[in-house]
């Protein structure tokens, strides 16, 4: 471990009066001192935090990749079968293409950001880069492309859902596949073009530190020390955040709030209509109770349990909309805010390192949950219902009974 000291002593003892040996010592001292200085600057991850984060990241990345691949397989298989059966596929062309684009963007983000996060947390030292050098420049670019394309696609899905509630025959027919293809092509070209200034902005910096076997060369990935590079990076990310990301968040939240308010207003209106129809039909039923033939003149009414079931379904839809908004905000907004702060002020200390790792993990969790919140929503709700029934059956509360479970 301390082989430089042994070599140094041997040189000094065997050639005490040699100028060449003094020259060798002069050349070795800066290297040894340099290793000593940089060793104290390397921070370490807390062991409990490292193990916990690894236990969270590995299942998240694996489930996210498998889930998004399952979305692509299901859509392509279903689309092919519908084409063979000559069914009315163009009705859902926009939504299907949007799900494909959304799954591809999530896969791109999970692969790029997940690889970076897992490689970073696998080392004890903070900030060491152990991936190939070209990934330092490419991964931030791919992450930005994935976030922009996914955000635009998700906003388009929200607008499409809102338009589906309106009685608009022109919109209900759906867009043709050439229009949808051009839309998605433009979306991805925009994401690649806007993110292009980030390509090559991050570079590898080399330094030396003392490891277990002496002086070791380490690598760090970050912005260059030039102040112009930091200014350009702050400008690019600020434009992306202010011009693209924040408007998309506002549109996404606004559309879903309008969607929930329309559903709630329709629920109140339908309950009032049911109450009025029920009050008006009671006297008629009493007057026409003389024979079964006159019962056909009564207005058709919903079954007694139908209004309750409709209310439960609409209440569930509102809960789903709330979950979509919360997952979107919590998964994406904190990382962007922290990035804006890091580019303008100096955030030193291990606390901010842990905060950055947690926020990055939230973005990965968001990408892993998206398949189950959009493509496999029905299956997710079915699993939740089964879990609720199992929990209901295990309770000893008299309100719940085994037959209702």
Automatic annotation (TrEMBL):
Keyword Zinc: no
Record-linked InterPro entries: GPCR_Rhodpsn, GPCR_Rhodpsn_7TM
Region (Disordered): 275-308
Cellular localization per UniProt: Membrane
Membrane topology, as annotated: Multi-pass membrane protein
Transmembrane segments: 55-73, 94-118, 180-199, 234-259, 317-339, 351-377
GO CC annotations, alphabetized: membrane
Classification via Pfam families: 7tm_1 (PF00001)
G-protein coupled receptors family 1 profile domain: residues covered: 67-374
Biased composition regions of type Polar residues, renumbered to the chain: 275-296
Superkingdom of source: Eukaryota
Alphabetized UniProt keyword annotations: G-protein coupled receptor, Membrane, Receptor, Transducer, Transmembrane, Transmembrane helix
PROSITE patterns the UniProt entry points to: G_PROTEIN_RECEP_F1_1, G_PROTEIN_RECEP_F1_2
Any one Gene Ontology molecular-function term assigned to this protein's record: G protein-coupled receptor activity
Predominant place of localization: membrane
PANTHER family: LEUCOKININ RECEPTOR, LEUCOKININ RECEPTOR-RELATED
Family: Belongs to the G-protein coupled receptor 1 family.
Name of protein: G-protein coupled receptors family 1 profile domain-containing protein
């Amino acid at each position: 471990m301390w082989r430089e000291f042994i070599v140094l002593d041997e040189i000094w003892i065997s050639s005490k009066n040699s100028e060449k040996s003094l020259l060798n010592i002069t050349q070795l001292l800066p290297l040894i001192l340099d290793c000593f200085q940089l060793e104290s600057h390397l921070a370490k991850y807390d062991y409990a935090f490292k193990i916990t984060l690894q236990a969270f990241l590995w299942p998240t990345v694996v489930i996210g990749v498998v889930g998004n691949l399952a979305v692509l397989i299901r859509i392509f298989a279903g689309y092919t079968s519908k084409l063979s059966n000559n069914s009315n596929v163009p009705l859902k062309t926009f939504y299907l293409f949007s799900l494909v684009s959304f799954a591809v963007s999530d896969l791109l983000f999970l692969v790029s950001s997940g690889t970076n996060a897992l490689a970073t947390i696998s080392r004890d030292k903070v900030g060491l880069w152990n991936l190939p050098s070209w990934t330092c420049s490419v991964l931030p670019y791919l992450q930005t492309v994935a976030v922009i394309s996914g955000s635009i696609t998700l906003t388009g899905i929200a607008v499409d859902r809102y338009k589906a509630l309106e009685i608009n025959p022109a919109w209900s027919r759906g867009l043709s596949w050439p229009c949808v293809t051009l839309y998605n092509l433009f979306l991805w070209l925009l994401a690649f073009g806007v993110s292009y200034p980030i390509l090559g902005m991050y570079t590898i910096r080399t330094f030396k530190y003392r490891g277990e076997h002496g002086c070791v060369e380490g690598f760090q990935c970050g912005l260059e020390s030039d102040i112009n590079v930091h200014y350009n990076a702050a400008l690019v990310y600020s434009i992306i955040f202010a011009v693209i990301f924040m408007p998309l968040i506002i549109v996404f939240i606004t559309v879903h709030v309008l969607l929930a308010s329309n559903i709630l207003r329709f629920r109140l209106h339908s309950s009032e209509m049911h109450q009025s129809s029920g009050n008006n039909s009671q006297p008629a039923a009493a007057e026409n109770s003389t024979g079964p033939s006159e019962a056909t003149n009564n207005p058709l009414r919903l079954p007694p349990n139908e209004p309750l079931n409709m209310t439960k379904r609409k209440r569930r839809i509102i809960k789903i909309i709330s979950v979509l908004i919360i997952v979107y905000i919590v998964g994406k907004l904190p990382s962007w805010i922290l990035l804006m702060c890091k580019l303008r002020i100096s955030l030193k200390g291990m606390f901010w390192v842990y905060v950055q790792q947690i926020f990055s993990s939230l973005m990965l969790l968001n990408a892993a949950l998206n398949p189950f919140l959009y493509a496999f929503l029905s299956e997710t709700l079915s699993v939740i219902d089964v879990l609720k029934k199992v929990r209901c059956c295990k309770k000893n509360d008299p309100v719940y009974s085994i037959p209702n479970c």
